[in-house]
């Protein structure tokens, strides 16, 4: 049976039987894979800790292409993201980020950019947290997966969509802004403030570092949350456990932001 080597990030792991653990990995070389690490809970070694979430590892595994579950034979920890594990906030934000990745990627979907994106944002969350980081990650990942929202003209007829009372219509089924003429019979569409559309454009096009000083009011963050959860609903096959966590985190986020004079409070 062929043996494979890969660079991987542990997205999720859960116990199997008395001593094994199933691990979901995003690898640079093969995309998302699942493997079983046998006997890993019987002895407390680095093999055990290398199969826990928030760990970047080098992994060796084997299994036929047809086998959905590979066998993990060897691991080596590259980075354990200790900064995330040491704070409750870091764990919460990191968990949402990993769960988003786990849920949004169907099949293997190999893309080296996604591997680097997860790594970059985990590194970022080690030092700073905030709703804007999650939104930034979420929309960048959606774009890499081919789910880029259409945020300029009407997604159906390509005409410039009129702004009505500082808002535009958005249809997640169509994947973008929609004009009133094309809106007919689309009951799932929602009305979205233009500033949410503008912020989303920035989240997609700008590096997360550049978003720190961008002024975002508590009200805008609230609208952003509503829009993100609505849009995500189109692509999540089943509800995310941590979606409630996002709600809680973002609600808490609003407090320091207002105190910080309307600037994004990214620092923990
Ligand atoms: Zn239209």
The largest β sheet comes out as: 5 strands, mixed, barrel
For the record, what CATH class of the largest domain applies?
Mainly Alpha
Please provide the ordered H/E string of secondary-structure elements. EEEHEEHHHHEEHEHHH
Task: Give the strand content.
Answer: 15-25%
Assign the CATH architecture of the largest domain.
Up-down Bundle
Quickly describe the structure:
The chain is α+β, with helices and mostly antiparallel strands and 268 residues long. It is built from nine helices and eight strands.
Description of the structure:
By secondary structure, this protein is an alpha+beta fold. The chain folds into two domains: 3-80, Nucleic acid-binding proteins (OB fold (Dihydrolipoamide Acetyltransferase, E2P), Beta Barrel); 88-259, de novo design (two linked rop proteins) (Up-down Bundle), CATH 1.20.1440.120. The chain is built from nine helices and eight strands. It has helices spanning 46-49, 82-85, 88-104, 112-125, 131-144, 180-183, 194-205, 218-232, 243-259, and strands at 3-16, 20-27, 31-37, 56-62, 69-79, 167-171, 176-178, 190-193. The strands form two sheets. It has a five-stranded mixed β-barrel. It has a three-stranded antiparallel β-sheet with strand order 7-6-8. Strand 6 (167-171) and strand 7 (176-178) form a beta hairpin. The chain starts with a strand and ends in a 9-residue tail after the last helix. The model is unreliable at 254-268 (pLDDT under 50). Zinc ion binds at residues 154, 156-157, 159, 178-179, 181-182.
């Amino acid at each position: 049976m062929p043996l494979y080597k890969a660079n991987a990030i542990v997205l999720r792991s859960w116990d199997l039987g008395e001593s094994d653990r199933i691990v979901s990995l995003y690898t640079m070389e093969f995309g998302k894979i699942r493997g079983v690490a046998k006997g890993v809970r019987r002895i407390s070694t680095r093999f055990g800790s290398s199969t826990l979430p928030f760990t970047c590892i080098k992994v060796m595994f084997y299994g036929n292409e047809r086998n959905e579950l590979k066998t993990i034979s060897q691991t080596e920890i590259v980075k354990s993201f200790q900064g995330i594990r040491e704070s409750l906030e870091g764990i919460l934000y990191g968990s949402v980020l990993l769960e988003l990745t786990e849920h949004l990627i169907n099949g293997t979907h190999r893309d080296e950019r996604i591997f680097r994106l997860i790594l970059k944002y985990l590194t970022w969350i080690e030092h700073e947290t905030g709703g804007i980081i999650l939104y930034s990650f979420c929309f960048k990942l959606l774009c890499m997966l081919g789910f880029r929202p259409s945020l300029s003209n009407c997604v159906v007829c390509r005409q410039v969509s009129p702004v009505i009372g500082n808002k535009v219509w958005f249809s997640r089924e169509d994947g973008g802004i929609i004009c009133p003429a094309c809106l007919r019979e689309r009951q799932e569409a929602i009305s979205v403030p233009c500033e949410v559309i503008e912020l989303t454009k920035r989240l997609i096009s700008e590096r997360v570092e550049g978003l720190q000083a961008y002024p975002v009011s508590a009200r805008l963050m609230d609208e952003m949350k509503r829009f993100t959860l609505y849009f995500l609903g189109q692509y999540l096959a089943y509800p995310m456990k941590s979606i409630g966590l996002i709600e809680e985190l973002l609600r808490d986020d609003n407090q320091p932001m207002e105190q910080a004079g309307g600037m994004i409070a990214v620092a923990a």
